[in-house]
Amino acid sequence: MIKEKKTIKEITENYRYCDDCGAEIPRGLMCSVVKCEICKKDLCNNCIGNEGDSYGDYRTVHCKSCWSIGETYRIKIEELANQIEKLHNEWASKCKT
After folding, report:
1. ∠ CA 67-34-73, rounded to 5°
2. pLDDT tens-digit map of 36-76
3. How far is 67 from 28, CA to CA, in rounded Å?
4. How far is CA 11 from CA 14, 39, 73, 93, in A?
5. Is 85 exposed, middle or buried (0-12, 13-18, 19+ CB in 10 A)?
């Protein structure tokens, strides 16, 4: 036997807001989980300082502040990466002789 029972339920909805500008971050087809890789702030599309290539479900982004602070570090990281590549090439060439 099936009896109808009426109940009133309270629903709580959560919304995500940008930690920089306070704008609501809409949910859509594009991944809505956008956090700065360094400071972990939730960001809207207008407050993203840089978006890198991502190969998974989550976008790789930096807020404008962290991206600006990292300018000198990114240059040094690139220089070191070039040195590492040079060392790997030297190692490989010595092994081939």
Report:
1. 20
2. 999 999 999 999 999 988 777 788 999 999 999 999 999 99
3. 26
4. 10, 32, 47, 66
5. exposed
